[in-house]
Amino acid sequence: MPIATDPLSRIFFALADPTRRAMLERLASGPATVGELAEPFAMSRPAVSQHLGVLEQAGLIERTRQGQWRSCALRPEGLDDAEAWVQQHRAAWQSRFDRLDETLAALVGDQSGARAAHRRRAGASVGDTNDQADRDVGEPKEQ
């Protein structure tokens, strides 16, 4: 598995795994020992340690050692880069969606104008028929 080298990639790599996200959720309520973090998971201690290493390299947690106990604590500021990236891209996508809405509105407006011009060119009797057909759309037919 390739190791991410830039900080943002490390953060998203760490967050991509549901086990690591569950560990972060647990740490949101306060520091925990490695044993406490490992408890809900059916995995070996080395696997837990590897997950914690990924979280630590991403800057999302810090591990400390007090005697024989190792504890972990959440570093909420570790998400700052990811949050900034998401906000920047959300703004860009929102701008694109706004432009798409404007384009679609212009196209719908052009189609309405084209229909009206066609009706004017075709004459009032055809236009009256089209107007009546437009009003009848969706109404049940009489039998």
Folded structure, characterized:
The structure is a single chain. With 143 residues, the protein is mainly alpha-helical. It has two domains: 7-74, Arc Repressor Mutant, subunit A; 80-123. The protein has six helices and three strands. The protein has helices at 7-15, 18-27, 34-38, 45-57, 80-122, 124-136; strands at residues 32-33, 61-66, 69-74. Strands 1-3-2 form a three-stranded antiparallel beta sheet. Helix 5 packs across helix 6 (124-136). This is HTH arsR-type domain-containing protein. InterPro entries: ArsR-like_HTH, HTH_ArsR_DNA-bd_dom, WH-like_DNA-bd_sf, WH_DNA-bd_sf. Residues 132-143 have a biased composition (Basic and acidic residues). It holds the Pfam family HTH_20. It comes from Agrococcus citreus.
Summarize the structure.
This protein is mainly α and 143 residues long. Helices cover 65% and strands 10% of the residues. The protein has helices at 7-15, 18-27, 34-38, 45-57, 80-122, 124-136, and strands spanning 32-33, 61-66, 69-74.
Strand percentage: 5-15%
What is the N-to-C order of secondary-structure elements (H for helix, E for strand)? HHEHHEEHH
Strand count, sense and barrel status of the largest sheet are: 3 strands, antiparallel
Helical amount: 55-70%
Total number of strands: 3
Shape label: rod-shaped
Can you identify the CATH class of the largest domain?
Mainly Alpha
Q: Would you identify the CATH H-level superfamily of the largest domain?
A: Winged helix-like DNA-binding domain superfamily/Winged helix DNA-binding domain
